[in-house]
């Protein structure tokens, strides 16, 4: 039986004009139950915004947590992406990667903070992404540590370029990272080839531990699909806001 309370929510859709991307970018903003502009709220910024809302059901999970489990109310911002250029924006060696992270940090973030009652404090911001979305979220934090210190990675595509950048840092004790990887992700097909994401995440975990990252790491049965991530999102959200 569907709980109607969980679907009485406000999701605002907007488009941001970007100089860095030379285009507009759709976003969607979830306002928590009882949203009041006089107050202020933590915020989650999601890559693959449309998928996080439609396939991940993040707004439903957050609403249930707030109403049924007393979680802190949170604003969720989903930043959409064109799948045709997703890799070029999200991969650290992609031709549009630098422009995308500048758009995210220097245009999208100020846009949200000027219009919604989000807390302008790095400790109150969480970046979230699946696969390459987890990758770009981590690289955003590495590029802008004064803005982002908390990252959710659902089966992050932490391949060699990312591991090399992590290894170059002497200390990552300022970074808090939630890593989830499915044990059935040993042969993940991507547009660049087939990769063992389990091994990639284990190698990344080792580097992060060496750099003193505040790390939550979990492996469990699951494939590289939204069906796996959707089921795990409530636990992930509770880790930060429960």
UniProtKB/TrEMBL annotation:
Alphabetized PANTHER family for the sequence: ENTEROCHELIN ESTERASE-RELATED, IRON(III) ENTEROBACTIN ESTERASE
Database matches in InterPro entries: AB_hydrolase_fold, Esterase-like, Mycobacterial_A85_antigen
Superkingdom classification of source: Bacteria
Signal peptide: none
Protein known as: Esterase family protein
Pfam families per UniProt: Esterase
């Amino acid at each position: 039986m569907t709980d109607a309370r969980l679907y009485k929510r406000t999701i605002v859709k907007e488009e941001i004009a970007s100089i860095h991307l030379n285009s507009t970018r759709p976003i969607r903003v979830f306002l928590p139950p009882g949203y009041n502009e006089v107050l202020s709220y933590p915020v989650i910024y999601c890559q693959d915004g449309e998928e996080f809302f439609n396939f991940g059901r993040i707004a439903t999970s957050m609403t249930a947590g707030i109403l049924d489990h007393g979680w802190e109310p949170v604003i969720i911002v989903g930043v959409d992406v064109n799948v045709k250029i997703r890799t070029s924006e999200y991969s650290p060696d992609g031709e549009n990667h630098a422009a995308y992270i500048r758009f995210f940090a220097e245009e999208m973030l100020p846009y949200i903070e000027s219009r919604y009652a989000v807390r302008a404090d790095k400790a109150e911001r969480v970046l979230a992404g699946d696969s390459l979305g987890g990758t770009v979220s981590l690289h955003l934090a590495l590029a802008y540590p004064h803005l982002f210190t908390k990252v959710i990675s659902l089966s992050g595509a932490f391949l060699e370029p990312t591991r090399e950048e992590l290894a170059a840092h002497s200390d990552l004790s300022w970074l808090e990272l939630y890593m989830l990887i499915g044990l059935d992700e040993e042969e993940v097909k991507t547009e660049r080839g087939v990769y063992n994401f389990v091994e990639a995440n284990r190698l990344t975990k080792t580097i992060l531990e060496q750099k003193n990252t505040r790390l939550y790491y979990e492996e469990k049965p699951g494939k590289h699909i939204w069906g796996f991530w959707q089921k795990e999102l409530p636990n992930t959200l509770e880790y930060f806001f429960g």
